[in-house]
Design goal:
Number of helices: 9
CATH architecture: 3-Layer(aba) Sandwich
Helix content: 25-40%
Number of strands: 8
CATH topology: Rossmann fold
Oligomer: single chain
Mean pLDDT: 93
Radius of gyration: 18 Å
CATH superfamily: NAD(P)-binding Rossmann-like Domain
Structural class: alpha/beta
Order of helices and strands: EHEHEHEHEHEHHHEEH
Largest sheet: 8 strands, mixed
Amino acid sequence: MVWRLADMPDQTGRVVVVTGANSGIGFEASKALSRKGARVVMACRNLGKAEAARAEVGGDTEVRELDLGSLASVHAFAEAWEGPIDVLVNNAGIMAVPFARTVDGFESQYGTNFLGPFALTGLLLPQVTDRVVTLSSGVHRMGRIDLADPGFERRRYQRWTAYGQSKLADLMFAYELQRRLLLAGSTLRSIAAHPGYAATNLQANLGTVALTSQRWMLKAGLVQDAAGGALPTLYAATAPDLPGGSYVGPSGWMEQTGPPRIVGSSAASRDLDTQRALWDLAVRLTGVDPGLPAVAAA
């Protein structure tokens, strides 16, 4: 069955936290959730942009400061939170940026896209009542997890290599979280999603030629706008019968556009030993332990 935005169930009474909600997919997802009655908390780094976005989203929305590139900010957000969260959407991220480090010393894409959301999820997990949705990317298929040097301290930095690693890490985290939730006897669900090719300001670092090409492809219908790119996130966040451990993406050609459905992922993303090791590394690097039992090694 084809899932459309009109198929989203009523969200009245539900609390949804969306990171990176001031633009792009996070903004469109927040708008759709709010219009279905959810209380949406827009967790954003730039409060000025977030407040402007909140005014456009309307409904029962709130802005709270969160910089996923800072563990102090992640802790502050979690410590200030009171009450249940039905859905946590780990949406915020950066893509193919020049080399930089977060305030905690992590390579910026690894730190912002993976370690920040890992820590946030671990700290908020006791309050989550339904599911955690983590955004990955089709680029995870070119990713490789380097457990010995995730921060490019010894190897040459390549921005797409770093992005692919961070998005593969997100997907593997979502899978490992689901396994650990099941082992703990929890009814919570961990679900991953990717937007396909959505024309958003995430592509700001691609350069003038690439952005011009992107605008042409958008007009030609070869890529989708941010609203279309938000559909997998919305399906992952609201479909009542979606199993934990699912990976959701567009149903069209090469999973670039189209209505959302459950999709496959790379063999690397399903490596159980690497999932476990990646989780343990994230605990060591962030100092946040979600407190879930480990799955025994095969």
